[in-house]
């Protein structure tokens, strides 16, 4: 079955690499802020939060457009034109949960539960991955389940939040993409 929106193959690998870099950068930025080292250590908290939000938004946009551009090349290669109905549904599901996640994040910041942002993002992405299974050919149920498990671990091991987030979005996507890549090489 051909479809034209996927994180299987090189797209998942690149997305995973971006995620690891983002996770490492945010962790470094937060560590510098909390220890008072470098420029980040001298920022007022409100400005620091704005910078974190902007960096996160940039990550989302860069990742999204990278996935779209790679899939556009893939669509041309396999002879598909435009987004098929399944790809549109997948995008709508992830966009809806991204918007819900954004609202939840703002509420968590407002009430001071910042440590719940990462577990929440893992839960929402995991749920999205499970919901889109009927529109995909990859094993998104397993991917979604792993994300949800990482979300639970992130709630327990709060000192490991960025490692768990990086493992989920980075390592899991690299593995998922690699499995898809090698599977496509066999076909």
Distance between the termini: 12 Å
Provide the gyration radius in Å. Answer: 17 Å
Q: How helix-rich are the residues, as a percent range? A: over 70%
As residue ranges, the low-confidence spans are none
| Total of helices | 6
SSE run: HHHHHH
SS-derived structural category:
mainly alpha
Assign an overall shape: elongated
- Tell me the domain tally: 1
Report what the structure shows:
There is one protein chain. The protein is an all-alpha fold and 187 residues long. It has one domain. Helices cover 78% and strands 0% of the residues. The chain is built from 6 helices and no strands. It has helices at 10-35, 45-78, 85-111, 117-131, 140-156, 161-186. Helix 1 runs antiparallel to helix 2 (45-78), helix 1 packs antiparallel against helix 6 (161-186) and helix 3 packs antiparallel against helix 4 (117-131). It starts with 9 loop residues before the first helix and ends with a helix. The mean pLDDT is 84.
Write the layout of secondary structure elements.
Blueprint: H1 10-35, H2 45-78, H3 85-111, H4 117-131, H5 140-156, H6 161-186
Q: Could you write a compact summary of the structure shown?
A:
The chain crosses the membrane at residues 7-30, 50-70, 90-108, 114-132, 139-157, 163-182. The protein is mostly helical.
What descriptors fit this protein?
78% helix, elongated, 187 residues
């Amino acid at each position: 079955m051909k479809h034209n929106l996927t994180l299987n193959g090189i797209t998942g690998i690149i997305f995973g690499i971006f995620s690891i870099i983002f996770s490492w950068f945010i962790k470094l930025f937060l560590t510098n802020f909390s220890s008072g080292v470098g420029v980040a250590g001298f920022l007022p908290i409100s400005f620091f939060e704005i910078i974190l939000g902007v960096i996160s938004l940039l990550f989302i946009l860069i990742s999204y457009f990278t996935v779209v551009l790679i899939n556009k090349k893939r669509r041309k290669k396999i002879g598909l034109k435009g987004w098929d109905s399944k790809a549109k549904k997948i995008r709508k599901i992830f966009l809806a949960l991204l918007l819900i996640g954004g609202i939840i994040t703002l509420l968590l910041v407002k009430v001071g539960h910042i440590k719940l942002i990462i577990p929440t993002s893992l839960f929402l992405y995991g749920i999205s991955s499970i919901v889109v299974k009927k529109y995909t050919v990859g094993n998104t149920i397993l991917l979604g389940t792993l994300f949800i498990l990482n979300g639970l671990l992130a709630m327990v091991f709060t000192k490991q939040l960025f490692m768990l987030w990086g493992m989920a979005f980075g390592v899991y996507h690299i593995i998922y993409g690699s499995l898809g890549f090698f599977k496509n090489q066999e076909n």
